[in-house]
Amino acid sequence: NTTAEQLMQALIKTGGAARTVGADLDDTITALGILANNGTKAEEAGTAMNSMLTRMASNSTAIDTLESLNVKIWDSKGNFIGLKNALIEINKQLDTKTPEERAQYIAGIAGTRRYSLMTYLLNAVKTDAKTGAAAWDTLEQKIRESNGSLDEMYNTTTNTLENAEKMLTSAK
Question: What is the model's pTM?
Fold first, then answer.
């Protein structure tokens, strides 16, 4: 539910934080897709992901909240376990909490401005009773199967007489 341009805008906004924590590109793109499917696209989604990743890695409230949930987002070597895995671990711990406690923990991790977006991500990694698959896994598979789509789009939009003339003119 996003365009290539919107995805690029989102990646520009979240790329630095994702790279800094060591988030996988597939995880980052899938998370941005989940946000887009829930109405948050382009720069807004990228800014939100940047904020959530930065909070989880460096905000004392978020770190304390994760610790109180007994969630470790870093492995024994100090490497990020991945966004999907972190969300799964958070969900495992939240499953034992009351709705009020869940709300407080999610706000502690993501902040009050990103609370709803974190909820979308957490819900996305849960297995759907009807389909037997998590929305995250379904979207991630579609993204993997789209390999070559960007090249195809480029060829379709640039393989025109007008662009051929422009390329010939610029070669001179």
Answer: 0.83
